[in-house]
Amino acid sequence: MKKLLLVFAAFLMLTSFRIDMRGPWVRTEKANIVLFTRPVDFSATASPDSMVIANILLEQENIIVYINRYLRTDYNSKFEIYLYNFDEAKEKIGTNGGGSCDSKRKWIFFTYYRQPVFNTYRNEYEYLGVHETVHLIAGTELGYSKTRFFGEGYSNAIDGNYGAIWVGDTLVRYRNDSTLQKLKKLGKLSTPGELLHRSEMPPDLYYPQIGCLMKWLFDEYGVENMNRLYTAKEKQIEKKFFEVTGESFADMERKYLAHLHYN
Ligand SMILES: [Zn+2]
Protein backbone atom coordinates (compact mmCIF):
# COMPACT_ATOMS: atom_id res chain seq x y z
CA MET A 1 0.00 0.00 0.00
CA LYS A 2 1.46 3.28 -1.10
CA LYS A 3 1.00 5.85 1.59
CA LEU A 4 0.94 9.54 0.96
CA LEU A 5 -0.12 12.00 3.55
CA LEU A 6 -1.90 14.89 1.95
CA VAL A 7 -2.02 17.79 4.29
CA PHE A 8 -5.33 19.55 4.15
CA ALA A 9 -3.98 22.73 5.67
CA ALA A 10 -7.34 24.34 6.10
CA PHE A 11 -6.82 27.58 7.92
CA LEU A 12 -9.13 30.37 8.94
CA MET A 13 -9.03 33.83 7.48
CA LEU A 14 -7.33 35.04 10.64
CA THR A 15 -4.11 34.69 8.72
CA SER A 16 -2.93 37.78 6.93
CA PHE A 17 -2.74 36.08 3.53
CA ARG A 18 -4.33 38.16 0.78
CA ILE A 19 -6.42 36.00 -1.51
CA ASP A 20 -6.19 36.80 -5.22
CA MET A 21 -9.77 36.54 -6.51
CA ARG A 22 -9.16 37.82 -10.03
CA GLY A 23 -10.86 36.03 -12.92
CA PRO A 24 -11.53 34.70 -15.42
CA TRP A 25 -14.11 32.47 -13.69
CA VAL A 26 -16.87 30.19 -14.91
CA ARG A 27 -19.91 30.87 -12.71
CA THR A 28 -22.41 28.09 -12.02
CA GLU A 29 -25.28 28.47 -9.58
CA LYS A 30 -27.50 25.84 -7.99
CA ALA A 31 -29.79 26.33 -4.98
CA ASN A 32 -27.71 28.21 -2.36
CA ILE A 33 -24.33 27.55 -3.95
CA VAL A 34 -22.52 29.76 -6.43
CA LEU A 35 -19.46 27.95 -7.74
CA PHE A 36 -16.63 29.74 -9.52
CA THR A 37 -14.22 27.53 -11.46
CA ARG A 38 -11.48 28.18 -14.02
CA PRO A 39 -12.21 27.96 -17.77
CA VAL A 40 -10.83 25.00 -19.74
CA ASP A 41 -7.05 25.31 -20.40
CA PHE A 42 -6.71 28.17 -17.90
CA SER A 43 -3.47 26.67 -16.53
CA ALA A 44 -1.25 23.61 -16.89
CA THR A 45 -3.28 21.54 -14.41
CA ALA A 46 -6.89 20.61 -15.12
CA SER A 47 -9.92 22.84 -14.69
CA PRO A 48 -13.16 21.09 -13.66
CA ASP A 49 -15.46 20.14 -16.55
CA SER A 50 -19.25 20.45 -16.48
CA MET A 51 -19.69 16.95 -15.06
CA VAL A 52 -17.35 17.68 -12.16
CA ILE A 53 -19.03 21.05 -11.56
CA ALA A 54 -22.41 19.31 -11.27
CA ASN A 55 -20.93 16.78 -8.85
CA ILE A 56 -19.40 19.47 -6.65
CA LEU A 57 -22.68 21.38 -6.45
CA LEU A 58 -24.54 18.22 -5.49
CA GLU A 59 -21.84 17.33 -2.94
CA GLN A 60 -22.13 20.70 -1.23
CA GLU A 61 -25.94 20.65 -1.28
CA ASN A 62 -25.80 17.30 0.54
CA ILE A 63 -23.16 18.59 2.93
CA ILE A 64 -25.32 21.59 3.91
CA VAL A 65 -28.08 19.12 4.90
CA TYR A 66 -25.53 16.93 6.72
CA ILE A 67 -24.14 19.85 8.75
CA ASN A 68 -27.56 21.34 9.53
CA ARG A 69 -28.70 17.97 10.82
CA TYR A 70 -25.55 17.57 12.91
CA LEU A 71 -25.60 21.07 14.43
CA ARG A 72 -29.40 21.35 14.59
CA THR A 73 -29.13 24.57 12.60
CA ASP A 74 -31.20 25.80 9.71
CA TYR A 75 -28.66 27.38 7.38
CA ASN A 76 -30.42 28.46 4.21
CA SER A 77 -28.65 31.26 2.37
CA LYS A 78 -26.29 31.72 -0.55
CA PHE A 79 -22.54 31.30 -0.40
CA GLU A 80 -19.75 31.36 -2.95
CA ILE A 81 -17.04 28.81 -3.62
CA TYR A 82 -13.90 29.79 -5.53
CA LEU A 83 -12.12 26.71 -6.80
CA TYR A 84 -8.51 27.28 -7.89
CA ASN A 85 -6.56 24.96 -10.15
CA PHE A 86 -3.89 22.97 -8.34
CA ASP A 87 -0.91 24.75 -9.92
CA GLU A 88 -2.09 28.28 -9.05
CA ALA A 89 -3.66 27.61 -5.63
CA LYS A 90 -0.59 28.02 -3.44
CA GLU A 91 0.24 31.43 -4.89
CA LYS A 92 -3.34 32.74 -4.87
CA ILE A 93 -4.97 31.27 -1.74
CA GLY A 94 -1.84 30.40 0.25
CA THR A 95 -2.19 26.61 0.06
CA ASN A 96 -2.73 23.79 -2.41
CA GLY A 97 -3.49 21.41 0.43
CA GLY A 98 -7.12 22.38 0.95
CA GLY A 99 -8.45 25.89 1.38
CA SER A 100 -9.97 28.43 3.71
CA CYS A 101 -13.23 30.11 4.60
CA ASP A 102 -14.35 33.69 5.17
CA SER A 103 -17.62 33.10 7.00
CA LYS A 104 -18.43 36.83 7.26
CA ARG A 105 -18.44 37.27 3.49
CA LYS A 106 -19.66 33.72 2.87
CA TRP A 107 -16.72 32.77 0.68
CA ILE A 108 -14.92 29.43 0.51
CA PHE A 109 -11.60 29.16 -1.31
CA PHE A 110 -10.39 25.71 -2.23
CA THR A 111 -7.98 23.71 -4.40
CA TYR A 112 -9.35 21.60 -7.23
CA TYR A 113 -8.08 18.02 -7.15
CA ARG A 114 -8.78 15.93 -10.17
CA GLN A 115 -9.36 12.88 -8.04
CA PRO A 116 -12.00 13.18 -5.30
CA VAL A 117 -11.12 11.70 -1.90
CA PHE A 118 -13.17 8.99 -0.21
CA ASN A 119 -14.65 9.83 3.21
CA THR A 120 -15.38 6.66 5.20
CA TYR A 121 -17.74 8.46 7.60
CA ARG A 122 -20.04 9.78 4.88
CA ASN A 123 -19.34 6.88 2.52
CA GLU A 124 -18.93 9.44 -0.25
CA TYR A 125 -16.25 10.77 -2.58
CA GLU A 126 -15.56 14.43 -1.87
CA TYR A 127 -14.04 17.29 -3.86
CA LEU A 128 -14.28 19.98 -1.18
CA GLY A 129 -15.63 17.97 1.70
CA VAL A 130 -17.10 19.13 4.96
CA HIS A 131 -14.46 21.16 6.84
CA GLU A 132 -14.74 24.64 5.27
CA THR A 133 -18.52 24.39 4.95
CA VAL A 134 -18.76 23.81 8.71
CA HIS A 135 -16.78 27.04 9.29
CA LEU A 136 -19.23 28.82 7.00
CA ILE A 137 -22.45 27.42 8.49
CA ALA A 138 -21.33 27.61 12.14
CA GLY A 139 -20.02 31.14 11.56
CA THR A 140 -23.35 32.23 10.05
CA GLU A 141 -25.69 30.42 12.41
CA LEU A 142 -23.83 30.54 15.73
CA GLY A 143 -21.61 33.61 15.33
CA TYR A 144 -17.91 34.24 15.00
CA SER A 145 -15.73 31.75 16.86
CA LYS A 146 -12.93 33.40 18.84
CA THR A 147 -11.00 30.21 19.55
CA ARG A 148 -9.46 27.38 17.58
CA PHE A 149 -10.90 25.12 20.29
CA PHE A 150 -14.43 25.68 18.96
CA GLY A 151 -13.68 26.97 15.42
CA GLU A 152 -11.43 24.07 14.42
CA GLY A 153 -13.14 21.77 16.93
CA TYR A 154 -16.44 21.97 15.07
CA SER A 155 -14.95 21.54 11.59
CA ASN A 156 -12.80 18.61 12.61
CA ALA A 157 -15.50 16.90 14.68
CA ILE A 158 -18.06 16.99 11.90
CA ASP A 159 -15.54 16.23 9.14
CA GLY A 160 -14.04 13.42 11.25
CA ASN A 161 -10.90 13.35 9.10
CA TYR A 162 -7.63 15.15 8.59
CA GLY A 163 -5.39 14.40 5.62
CA ALA A 164 -5.60 11.41 3.28
CA ILE A 165 -3.69 8.29 2.29
CA TRP A 166 -3.53 6.27 -0.91
CA VAL A 167 -5.16 2.87 -0.62
CA GLY A 168 -4.43 1.25 -3.97
CA ASP A 169 -5.67 3.73 -6.56
CA THR A 170 -8.02 5.54 -4.21
CA LEU A 171 -7.26 8.47 -1.97
CA VAL A 172 -8.98 7.87 1.35
CA ARG A 173 -9.50 10.52 4.02
CA TYR A 174 -7.55 9.74 7.16
CA ARG A 175 -9.82 9.35 10.18
CA ASN A 176 -9.18 11.41 13.30
CA ASP A 177 -9.93 8.44 15.57
CA SER A 178 -7.15 6.46 13.83
CA THR A 179 -4.72 9.36 14.25
CA LEU A 180 -5.65 9.58 17.93
CA GLN A 181 -4.69 5.93 18.45
CA LYS A 182 -1.31 6.63 16.83
CA LEU A 183 -0.72 9.68 19.01
CA LYS A 184 -1.69 7.64 22.06
CA LYS A 185 0.95 5.02 21.25
CA LEU A 186 3.52 7.79 20.79
CA GLY A 187 2.54 9.38 24.12
CA LYS A 188 1.61 12.62 22.35
CA LEU A 189 -1.99 13.08 23.51
CA SER A 190 -2.97 16.49 24.85
CA THR A 191 -5.49 17.18 27.60
CA PRO A 192 -8.63 19.29 26.93
CA GLY A 193 -6.99 22.12 28.92
CA GLU A 194 -3.93 22.00 26.66
CA LEU A 195 -6.13 21.95 23.57
CA LEU A 196 -7.91 25.03 24.91
CA HIS A 197 -4.92 27.07 26.05
CA ARG A 198 -2.14 25.83 23.77
CA SER A 199 -4.06 25.70 20.52
CA GLU A 200 -1.17 26.96 18.38
CA MET A 201 0.30 23.47 17.99
CA PRO A 202 0.74 22.20 14.38
CA PRO A 203 -2.50 21.21 12.58
CA ASP A 204 -1.46 17.56 12.20
CA LEU A 205 -1.37 17.34 16.01
CA TYR A 206 -4.18 19.76 16.80
CA TYR A 207 -6.92 19.01 14.28
CA PRO A 208 -7.37 15.25 14.90
CA GLN A 209 -7.26 15.75 18.68
CA ILE A 210 -9.64 18.70 18.88
CA GLY A 211 -11.94 16.89 16.41
CA CYS A 212 -12.15 13.80 18.64
CA LEU A 213 -12.61 15.86 21.80
CA MET A 214 -15.38 17.99 20.29
CA LYS A 215 -17.18 14.94 18.94
CA TRP A 216 -17.08 13.45 22.45
CA LEU A 217 -18.33 16.76 23.93
CA PHE A 218 -21.25 16.71 21.46
CA ASP A 219 -22.15 13.15 22.52
CA GLU A 220 -21.65 13.72 26.23
CA TYR A 221 -23.15 17.20 26.74
CA GLY A 222 -25.28 17.78 23.63
CA VAL A 223 -24.66 19.78 20.46
CA GLU A 224 -27.06 22.55 21.53
CA ASN A 225 -25.08 23.14 24.74
CA MET A 226 -21.81 23.32 22.82
CA ASN A 227 -23.47 25.72 20.34
CA ARG A 228 -24.04 28.10 23.26
CA LEU A 229 -20.28 28.10 23.94
CA TYR A 230 -19.17 28.43 20.30
CA THR A 231 -18.44 32.18 20.40
CA ALA A 232 -17.00 32.32 23.95
CA LYS A 233 -13.56 33.82 24.54
CA GLU A 234 -10.75 31.50 25.61
CA LYS A 235 -10.61 32.94 29.13
CA GLN A 236 -14.36 32.47 29.70
CA ILE A 237 -14.79 28.97 28.31
CA GLU A 238 -14.09 27.10 31.56
CA LYS A 239 -16.55 29.23 33.55
CA LYS A 240 -19.20 29.15 30.83
CA PHE A 241 -18.77 25.40 30.43
CA PHE A 242 -19.94 25.00 34.01
CA GLU A 243 -22.85 27.44 33.53
CA VAL A 244 -24.07 25.60 30.44
CA THR A 245 -23.49 21.95 31.40
CA GLY A 246 -23.60 22.04 35.22
CA GLU A 247 -20.27 20.25 35.27
CA SER A 248 -16.85 21.81 35.83
CA PHE A 249 -14.28 21.88 33.02
CA ALA A 250 -11.94 19.97 35.35
CA ASP A 251 -14.51 17.19 35.87
CA MET A 252 -15.11 16.99 32.12
CA GLU A 253 -11.36 16.79 31.62
CA ARG A 254 -11.04 13.86 34.05
CA LYS A 255 -13.91 12.04 32.34
CA TYR A 256 -12.41 12.56 28.89
CA LEU A 257 -8.95 11.38 29.92
CA ALA A 258 -10.51 8.26 31.44
CA HIS A 259 -12.42 7.73 28.17
CA LEU A 260 -9.16 8.03 26.18
CA HIS A 261 -7.47 5.62 28.57
CA TYR A 262 -10.07 2.89 28.00
CA ASN A 263 -10.60 3.44 24.26
ZN1 LIG B 1 -10.48 25.00 9.67
Question: What does the model show?
Answer:
This protein is α/β, with parallel strands linked by helices and 263 residues long. It folds into two domains: 11-141, 3-Layer(aba) Sandwich (Glutaredoxin), CATH 3.40.30; 175-262, no CATH class. Helix content is 46%, strand content 18%. The protein has ten helices and ten strands. The protein has helices at 50-71, 86-93, 131-141, 148-159, 176-185, 192-197, 203-221, 223-229, 234-245, 249-262; strands spanning 11-12, 26-30, 33-37, 79-85, 99-102, 107-112, 117-119, 124-126, 161-167, 170-175. It has a six-stranded mixed β-sheet. A two-stranded antiparallel sheet has the order 7-8. The longest helix is centred in the first third of the chain and has 22 residues, at 50-71. Residues 1-5 and 9-14 have low confidence and may be disordered. Bound molecules: zinc ion. Zinc ion binds next to α3 and α4. Residues 10, 12, 131, 135, 152, 155 line the site of zinc ion (ZN).
CATH class of the largest domain: Alpha Beta
Series of secondary-structure elements, N-terminal to C-terminal: EEEHEHEEEEHHEEHHHHHH
Bound molecules: zinc ion
- Indicate the percent of residues in helices: 40-55%
Distance between the termini: 27 Å
CATH topology of the largest domain: Glutaredoxin
What would you report as the Rg, rounded to the nearest angstrom?
A: 18 Å
Percent in strands: 15-25%
| Silhouette | globular
Structural class: alpha/beta
Based on the coordinates given, report the CATH architecture of the largest domain.
3-Layer(aba) Sandwich
Mean pLDDT: 94
**Residue ranges: pLDDT <50 for 5 or more in a row?**
1-5, 9-14
| Order of the strands making up the biggest sheet | 1-5-6-4-3-2
Number-wise, the strands total: 10
Count of domains = 2
Largest sheet features: 6 strands, mixed
Task: Please count the helical segments.
Answer: 10
